[in-house]
């Protein structure tokens, strides 16, 4: 015999028990359908796991973004509070300056008034040295 005969002698007979083919006792068509269904389910499960992993990664990214935004929000609120305090301090400083300016104006007017009295008294004294009473 030639190569075909040699191959036939070494090949496994069809009734040699479970092998790569369908399990014994099941109809071949039913077995193929089951196997195909199991493969499809396995593929679906793997795809769902991949989708779930992508969703988890996206959720983690969103959480990181949310944490960052919360931090930015807190910093903004603190900056606004500091700004309000600074504004209030500036307003109080402005009011104090207004008060001091008004006080200085009153003091200047008082000094001018006293200066006028002194000058008037001096002139009167010079004009009538004995008449100042």
TrEMBL record:
Which keywords describe this protein according to UniProt? Coiled coil
- Disordered, as annotated region: 1-29
Q: Which residues form a coiled coil?
A: 45-103
Superkingdom field: Eukaryota
Protein name (database record): Uncharacterized protein
